[in-house]
Design brief:
The protein contains 18 helices and no strands. It folds into 2 domains: 353 residues, no CATH class; 107 residues. The longest helix has 37 residues. α4 runs antiparallel to α5 and α10 runs antiparallel to α13. Helices cover 74% and strands 0% of the residues. It is an all-alpha fold.
């Protein structure tokens, strides 16, 4: 397979299966985020709720794009970690997978709503940091600019979930205070009795929205993970998008060369002047190389990965230079640079359809099992009162909106964190802080705090171990 030896082909297959396993675990780990409210308010039977959620998770992956996946890939500049020893690539991939899957299963077993996003990102950061500590490596192997954006998104999104749910609950209470709907919305659901049709419809709609947004965000993380595996192990086949005609990129490449050529290098610092010269040299070289190629297949297998690396270097240099005060360009020229770099990335920022389908199936099927442990935590243990219709609908509406907006910007956020924070916010809005079960809240916060450092240490240690075994 892909011109690999049999043993490496088997390992590649196992790594892809493990990536599907991670997304499967992510599915049943996060199912509760969507179905807890409809189950605890008796709006849907548990078996119907998880199947319904699974279908919409599948749809979210299929229709949600790949902007979040690209963010995951860019977090670990895999082109800087690749060398001629395929065993080194396997060491990176296996350390990522084992760490992420282990922590997801561990927290699921104890019923702790832990973030799969934190788990995957921690695994990636751990491998990148470990790689940068190797004696033969110079410089960082993590895109810290991208890491900062992701970290900020993960930090802000729970705060948004909590505060916006409090606001929505208070708004609902004021709006329905003197109507017949007020009592219905804020009452505890009757045991084994479904809510009125209009309330049931709202709750099923919010459940659907959370399921779809979860697929469009968390599912993309699985797509990004698979692409890291494929680019790391068989870069000749997956470094470039075969559906893009290289000759079509000659024009944006020429625009980049022209605009960068307008920059006066004299005021630039030494690192920036190096980036300027490197961008100018690479853009001229790539313009000529791309113009003569009729398809990606016409590029030699050895050159494909090198071309990917050069394109990504140009893109990073352009983004860095545009933000410098010393780079005196008009706004029109800066826009040309941004647009041309984005057009150029069409040959590197992609995912094959089969990868998206594989991850969609894994997440959708995983969603249909394993929901009971964490549903119980969300439905019963965050607050001291039973989840009401208003609380469930408010938390899910805020979660779906927050995650959907994050996906549009390509930011990976944690469905678990956003929804758990929303449930906590709904409890506070109902009867104040005293309505929270602090033991559960403490355990959830502890899991959130520990996930990144624990998984980073685990993946970094495994990377060193596997890399040593590869060199042995």
């Amino acid at each position: 397979m892909y011109e690999l030896d049999f043993s490496y082909s088997v390992l590649l297959f196992l790594c892809l299966a493990a990536a599907c396993g991670f997304e499967f675990v992510n599915g049943f780990h996060d199912t509760a985020n969507a179905v807890a409210t409809v189950i605890y308010t008796h709006s849907m039977k548990p078996w119907a709720a998880v199947i319904w959620s699974g279908v919409w998770n599948f749809m979210g992956v299929m229709l949600g794009g790949i902007s979040v996946a690209i963010g995951i890939i860019n977090l670990l500049p895999v082109e800087s970690l690749i060398d001629q020893n395929i065993a080194h690539s396997l060491a990176m991939v296996m350390a990522l997978l084992i760490s992420a899957i282990f922590w997801n299963l561990f927290t699921w077993y104890f019923g702790i709503p832990c973030s799969s996003s934190h788990t995957l990102i921690g695994s990636i950061l751990g491998v990148g940091i470990a790689y940068s500590l190797l004696p033969e490596v110079a410089g960082a192997a993590v895109d810290w600019g991208q890491a900062k954006k992701i970290g900020l998104a993960l930090l802000i999104s729970p705060a948004i979930g909590f505060s916006m749910t409090v606001f929505l609950m208070l708004l609902l209470r004021v709006a329905t205070k003197k109507t017949q709907y007020g009592d219905s919305l804020f009452k505890e659901p009757k045991k084994n009795s479904p809510p009125p049709f209009w309330i049931r419809s709202i709750l099923i709609l919010t459940c659907t929205s959370v399921s779809y947004s979860h697929g469009s965000n968390d599912g993309q993380k699985g797509v990004g993970l698979v692409m890291l595996i494929l680019i790391g192990i068989v870069p000749s086949y997956f470094a470039l998008n075969s559906k893009v005609l290289p000759a079509e990129l000659s024009e944006p490449m020429a625009k980049i060369e022209r605009v960068v050529g307008l920059v006066d290098p004299k005021p630039l610092s030494h690192p920036d002047s190096v980036k300027w010269a490197e961008t100018l040299a690479l853009s001229g070289k790539l313009k000529n190389d791309l113009a003569s190629k009729t398809s990606v297949q016409a590029i030699s297998k050895q050159e494909r990965f090198l071309m990917r690396r050069d394109i990504l270097v140009i893109d990073r240099n352009v983004k860095s230079l545009i933000g410098k005060d010393e780079v005196r360009l008009s706004e029109a020229d800066k826009k040309v640079l941004k647009d041309s770099a984005k057009e150029l990335r069409s040959i590197t920022d992609y995912s094959p359809t089969w990868v998206v389908v594989m991850i969609a199936l894994s997440l959708g099927l995983g969603t249909m099992i394993g929901w009971k442990r964490i549903v119980k935590t969300i439905g019963e243990k965050i607050g001291k009162e039973h989840l009401t219709y208003a609380q469930g609908a408010s938390a899910e509406l805020v979660a779906a909106t927050t995650i959907g907006m994050a996906s549009q910007f390509g930011w990976p956020v944690s469905t678990t964190q956003v929804l758990s924070s929303g449930i906590a916010g709904s409890m506070v809005a109902s009867k104040g802080v005293k309505n929270l079960q602090f033991d559960t809240v403490r355990n959830i916060l502890l899991a959130w705090v520990l996930t990144l450092p624990v998984v980073m240490i685990m993946s970094g240690t495994l990377f060193f171990l596997f890399r040593s075994l590869a060199d042995w």
